[in-house]
Each structure stands twice: as structure tokens, then as C-alpha cells.
Design a protein that fits this description.
Shape: rod-shaped
Radius of gyration: 24 Å
Largest sheet: 5 strands, mixed, barrel
Distance between the termini: 55 Å
Number of helices: 0
Number of strands: 9
Strand order of the largest sheet: 1-2-5-3-4
Helix content: under 10%
Length: 127
């Protein structure tokens, strides 16, 4: 018996017999419980247990690999700002981004001579 911990779509965490299902952390699984079938995501794999739980809540019926991460994070708040350490140019100011102020929508750029300059990020061409 191989035991896995699964967080169900309703938020419950259950211990299941994973049998021969090839699971890894964040695998998406269909499960069979006493109160019916549902699905969830693996948060503990069989290899991670030192001592298995005292009882099981059901079985893993099917396992699917984790969803790949979304490489485009443009939907996240603040994604329009440059990264810290990135080289940028804003008007006459060119240098490395050393601070971000998303509330005021400003970026601090450290010029080659080391002097920091605060610039509004909304006014940046193409930004």
C-alpha cells in the first residue's frame, strides 16, 4: 500500500491509498471516498512518509501530471515594472533598477555614477 495526502477541491485534506498510481507533488488525482468520487491535488507523496497515518479515507482512482507553470505572468499585479537589477533607460536617466514603488508607480534607477534617480514608471515609453 502506498499512501498519499490529497487536498480535495472542497478544501478537505485526506489520506488515500495511491496503490500503483504514479504520483508526484501537485499531481491532479481523481479519488473515491466513502461519500462519493471527487478530485484534488497531491500534497504528500508516499515517499515522504516516515510513519503512515492511522486510517485511510479512500483510494486514488486516476492520476494526472501537475499542470505546467504559466510562463506568462503578465496578469500579476506589478508585472509591468522592471525587475530589480535590470538595466533600463527613462528619458536621460539610464542605469540599474534599485527600488520599486508600485503604490506611487515610481522606479529608482541608479546611474553609472551611483546617484539614484526616482522616475515615474507610467510615463516610460513602452512601459
Amino acid at each position: 500500500m502506498r499512501i498519499a495526502g490529497v487536498r480535495l477541491v472542497d478544501g478537505r485534506m485526506v489520506w488515500l491509498d495511491a496503490d500503483e498510481a504514479g504520483i508526484v507533488p501537485l499531481s491532479r488525482v481523481s479519488v473515491r471516498l466513502v461519500d462519493g468520487d471527487t478530485h484534488g491535488e497531491v500534497f504528500v507523496t508516499p515517499e515522504e512518509f516516515l510513519t503512515p497515518p492511522a486510517h485511510l479515507d479512500g483510494i486514488v482512482v486516476e492520476s494526472r501530471p501537475p499542470l505546467p507553470p504559466d510562463p506568462d505572468c503578465a496578469y500579476l499585479p506589478g508585472s509591468e515594472f522592471p525587475a530589480l537589477g535590470e538595466m533600463v533607460q527613462q528619458g536621460e536617466v539610464e542605469g540599474i533598477v534599485v527600488a520599486l514603488d508600485p503604490v506611487q508607480r515610481q522606479v529608482t534607477i541608479s546611474a553609472e555614477n551611483g546617484s539614484p534617480t526616482l522616475v515615474p514608471w507610467d510615463d516610460r515609453a513602452g512601459g
